Amino acid sequence: MRYRFSPDSRADGRPAGMAGMEPGELEETELKGRGKVRAGHAGDSLVLRIDALTTQTRRFKPLVREFFRKEFRAARPVFGDYQVEILIIQPDETRGKHDVDNVAKAILDALTGAAFRDDVQVTKLTVEKISGDRPRLWVRASPRA
C-alpha cells in the first residue's frame, strides 16, 4: 500500500504531515506487512504504521518485535543519534485516554533493537495527537545529520 503524507489528508484518516515535518517532505512510502503493523523506508527514514493504540509497553513490544523478526527484516539497528516523530490518531470518544508521553515511551521501547540499538540514541522526539476515524500510530525514525 502507498500513502502520501500531505497537509490535506486528515479527512481520510491518513496523516496530515507528521509532527514537525514540512508538508510534502515525506513523499510516497510503500508499506510492507500485514496485520496491525506495517513499515517501509522513505530515504534513510523508517516509517511505521500501527493500527492499535495503547500506553502499555508490554503490548507494543511483542507486536512490533514479531513484525520486525518475521516480516520486515530490512531494518537493522545502527549506532548514532536519531530523531523520532510520532503521530497519534484517536477517535474523539477515546481522545483523553492516552497520554502522549506514555505512548511515546511505549513506542520507543518497542523500537529498541529494531530501528536503533537503544532509546538513548533518540535526541529529538516530536509527538502530536489528532482526531481520526480509528486508533492508529504513525512513526518516523530518522538518523540525525
Description:
With 145 residues, the protein is of the alpha+beta class. 18% of the residues lie in helices and 30% in strands. The protein is built from 2 helices and 7 strands; from the N terminus they run E-E-E-E-H-E-H-E-E. The chain has helices at 57-70, 100-111, and strands at residues 2-3, 29-30, 37-42, 45-50, 82-90, 122-131, 136-143. The strands form 2 sheets. The chain has a 5-stranded mixed β-sheet, with helices on one face. Helix 2 links the parallel strand 5 (82-90) and strand 6 (122-131). Helix 1 packs parallel to helix 2 (100-111). The longest helix has 14 residues, at 57-70. The radius of gyration is 14 Å and the shape is globular. Residues 1-16 and 19-27 have low confidence and may be disordered.
